[in-house]
Amino acid sequence: MLFAVDAHVHLEDSLPDFAAVEQRMATASGRRDAVPVLLLTERHGRHVHRELGALFEPTADGLGLVRRGGSLIVVPGRQFESEERIEILAYGYGPDELEGRSAVQIIRELAKDGVPVALPWGVGKWTGPRRAAVRQLIADFGDGLLLGDIAGRPSLWPEPLFAGCRVLNGGDNLPIAGGSLRIGSFGSLVEGFGPNGRPVESLFRSLRDHAVLLRDFGARRSLIRSGEEQLRLRFAREAA
Fold first, then answer.
1. Residues 6 or more apart from 135 whose CB is under 8 A from it?
2. What number is the average pLDDT over the span 18-35?
3. For the whole model, what pTM was predicted?
4. CATH number of domain containing 70
5. What is the domain range of residue 104?
6. Is the confidence at residue 238, as pLDDT, over 50?
7. For the chain, what is the domain count?
8. Which residues of 146-178 are buried (b: 16+ CB within 10 A; e: fewer)?
């Protein structure tokens, strides 16, 4: 089973057209045989996945939701901000009380339950003093940690910390007008292994297995477009 995964998805003020997302992922990945998967990275206190009952039904393994009349799978997950202001993504699990703890504490707690965990790239999160902290986390947790790339990292912006690490891609759609149209346009192709009919369990097993390759699909934003989106996000926050 092949999965096309957008591993950094926010569902903010309104739900996207999930049928359009499914089509977008097939087009971006070039693999209509791949099962499209959105890994939600909900922020502290948000539980939007609970509102999807009318459009989705549980997967057989109980770990995700599959679109009624389609094949799109949505998996709950969390985006934590640590004490050091480093973002940490937890897929399929993530109690709110971990918010604000040290990065080491958050990752250790998640690792106890075998939760796939990623450190996503960010414009301000991987620069300055926090860059050294990210580098140390990579050294400390090694194979137990995924790194996350996002569509908003301009193609001309290299990232040496990705070298030698497994990188899982996600769109990281921003809470700005038209942001939801980015969902599913950038991600990773992942070969799944595991029991038939248990898709999320199969995907998670592959994410934890370093022998499984993660292949890019879709396109990232240009430097100009990325800068424009960051400005729009800043203005939206200031106006709120």
1. 161
2. 96
3. 0.91
4. 3.20.20.140
5. 2-239
6. no
7. 1
8. bbbbbbbbbeeeeeebeeeebbbbbbbbbebee
The alpha carbon dihedral of 118, 136, 173, 33 has a sign of: negative
Maximum distance among all alpha carbons in the chain? 49
Residue 67, strand partner residues? 56
51, amino acid identity = E
In degrees, rounded to 5, the angle at the alpha carbon of residue 2 between the alpha carbons of residues 17 and 163 is: 95
- pLDDT (tens digit, 9 = 90+) per residue, 65-115? 999 999 999 999 999 999 999 999 999 987 889 999 999 999 999 998 888
Read off the pLDDT of residues 32-58 as tens digits, 9 standing for 90 and up: 999 999 999 998 888 888 889 899 999
Residue 91 contacts residue 207 (beta carbons within 8 Å): yes
d(CA 193, CA 240): 45
Closest Cα partner for 167 from 133, 124, 119, 106? 119
C-alpha count within 13 angstroms, C-beta hemisphere, residue 26: 12
Quick one: average pLDDT of 192-206?
A: 89
Q: Tokens 């926010």 appear where? A: 10
